[in-house]
Amino acid sequence: MLESGASVPLTSRFMAGTTLAILRGPSNEMLQLERPVLNIVGRLSGISTGTRRYHEAIIHTHKHTQKRHMH
Length: 71
Known about the structure:
Elements lengths: L2 E4 L14 E4 L2 H44 L1
């Protein structure tokens, strides 16, 4: 049976190379799940990066819009 523990709190930012989770259990079970888990983590990371960039663009636009209205 696999055991896992998160190393990074949900919703926190992290840098490349950060340990996200620790798995313990039989190596054959871990190897069977390795590729699907990496695919899911990669996909979710891409989604969150895109969402963050979109959010920052909206904030940036909002700040510039407010400055124009103040003059």
